[in-house]
Structures are given as structure tokens and as C-alpha cells.
Amino acid sequence: MKAALLCLAALCLCALTGCQHPMENPYFQVKASGLNWLEIRKYTIGEQTRRVRVRIDGNGVITVRDGTSPLVGNPFAYDVNNSNWGDIRETRLNIPPEEALFLFQSLVDNGLFVKQKKPEGELAKGTHYFFSANIQNKTASSIDPITDPELAERLDMVVRMFYRPTPVRNR
User: Fold this and answer.
1) The CA-based dihedral angle spanning residues 11, 12, 18, 21, taken in that order and rounded to the nearest 10 degrees
2) What domain count does the chain have?
3) pLDDT per position as a tens digit, 54-100
4) pTM of the complete model beyond 0.85
5) Is the residue at 13 inside a domain?
6) Residue 117 belongs to what domain range?
7) Kind and range of the H or E run holding 93
8) For the chain, what is the radius of gyration of the CA atoms?
9) Is 59 exposed, middle or buried (0-12, 13-18, 19+ CB in 10 A)?
């Protein structure tokens, strides 16, 4: 009986103090791992949708893709008859794993794993950011554009660090 009351008191105390399971905490210390990765997708919605995708792996490999091809946003795209199928450029860079760790930690500290609010209304023309991540076996992905302006600014900063626009060749 005493054990049941003690257990009930501990559960009430946890509920009142706001204890959270460590796996649900959106702010955490990132540890170095080659299995960590982050993918940022920047879409400029307009006459022709421009896409940029920056993938950062925990081992320091950066892959940057840009263009109007569906392959930029989805490497498994199958719409080979798309008129923009060939409009894709890819660049690979290497940075020290410590710098990748720093980028992961700064994004986690700025709310990468905090649940985002759903935007209201239709997707307006302009620039929108989406992401997918697996850091410390915690996964997150945004189906809708990022609505947090500070996180969007951080994601934009990371994209600008590695994306160097090149002139598009006219056919």
C-alpha cells in the first residue's frame, strides 16, 4: 500500500513539474556521429519553381543540388517526361565533422525539433523552407513550410553557406 501511494505521489509530482521523457525533449546535446544527417529544401515558388537541396552528413559530406528538375527535391523521382528533368546541378563539399556537429547543435538549439505550427491558407509565392533530419536517432521532418522566422533564418544561413548559384544555360 505504501509503495503504491509513493508511486502515485511520484507520478503526480512528475506531472506537476512538467517532466518530459528524454526522447521527447526537442533541445539536446548533439554527439558526433556519421549517422547524423540534415536535409534542407528551399523552394522558390513562382513562374518556375526553383529548388535547392542541401544535405549535411555527420561525417562532413555536404551535397548541394539545385535546379527546376523534380530530382532536386526527390532523388527517386520518376517523372522522366518532365520538361525540366535535366535541369539539375550537384556539388559535393567536405567540411570537418566538428563543423557539421556545430551546425547540427546550432539548429537543434534554435528549435529544429520543436513542433512547427501549420501555415494558414495556401502556399504563397516566395521562398519556403522544408527540412528532414535524423540527429541522435531523433527524426523530424516538415511537410509544411517552416513558420518559425528564427528557424527559417538559420536554415537560410546554412543554405547560403554552401549554395553558390550558377548561371543557367539557355538551350
Assistant:
1) 10
2) 1
3) 999 999 999 999 998 889 988 898 988 988 898 899 999 999 999 99
4) no
5) no
6) 34-162
7) strand 88-94
8) 20
9) middle
